[in-house]
Amino acid sequence: MHQADKRVHLVECPRDAMQGLKQMVPTEQKIRYLNLLLDCGFHTLDCGSFVSATAVPQLADTGEVLQGINQHGTLDANLLVIVGNVRGAMEAARFPGVKYLGFPLSVSEQFQQRNTNATRREAFERLKEIHGIAQESGRECVVYLSMGFGNPFGDPYSVQEVMDWAANLVHAGFRIISLSDTIGSAKEEDIDTLFSALIPAFPGVEFGAHLHSVPGTWHGKVQIALDAGCRRFDGALRGFGGCPFAMDQLTGNLPTETLIEFLDQNGWETGIDRTALSQALAFAPEIFK
């Protein structure tokens, strides 16, 4: 394997980690934490969202946070923010540091309604409008196929349906698609089937894995995704965050620091500055009390 093939893109997700916190984190603390994370060298930093403040009050200050980490308007970083509609996309496009507009497109009809107040088809049409805004403003879209490995609502699920939705996205022009295990239900065989089929079928597309898991059960899933060709993984320091629909409160994001150790031990390159990572880890308890 060539050295270039050993590089893994890590996406750090403080937005996902913070959004469910009941206590409000002061804007100044968010800015300090994000600045520490920016020093670590992550490929992408999922740092906030422009969605309803009523739905996600913790992230209502995303605009202020973006201004705070980019005081001079010259930030050169791969910042990602989640948007749920055209208004949110236009707001996000105002900020120079934002490179990616993330949108959750759910395989589950019920989750799509809960998450964006739209059917899957309506959300897909909305996403195409957001894609246009991204292109006009020099941004890219990252599509998260939520509930990509099952759902708690009893909606029909099949690997083939996920593959069909992914194909629809590729044909509509999207080039970064992250398969999301929203409730930690992914089976290793499904991870293998999906990535092994999609990655060679669409070589111009970057497929990522946004996995949730209880502690100690994710290593095999990550290894299978790597073996199938996945080179993009989302995580959050100390595994904070997770889906409010998960039945197990221990189900959270992949812990970035142990994910990095796992990748290091297996010869993968992440480009992470270990000193900066230690500083961010030391500050994290101030956010997640």
Please describe what this structure looks like.
- There is one protein chain.
- With 289 residues, the chain is α/β, with parallel strands linked by helices.
- The protein has a single domain, classed as Alpha-Beta Barrel (TIM Barrel).
- The chain has eleven helices and nine strands.
- It has a nine-stranded mixed β-sheet.
- α2 (27-38) runs antiparallel to α11 and α8 (188-201) runs parallel beside α9.
- The protein is globular, with a radius of gyration of 18 Å.
- The mean pLDDT is 91.
SSE blueprint and pairings:
Blueprint: E1 9-12, H1 14-18, H2 27-38, E2 44-50, H3 62-68, E3 79-83, H4 86-92, E4 98-106, H5 109-116, H6 120-136, E5 140-146, H7 159-171, E6 176-181, H8 188-201, E7 206-213, H9 219-227, E8 232-235, E9 252-253, H10 256-265, H11 274-287
Parallel strand pairs: 1-2, 1-8, 2-3, 3-4, 4-5, 5-6, 6-7
Antiparallel strand pairs: 7-9
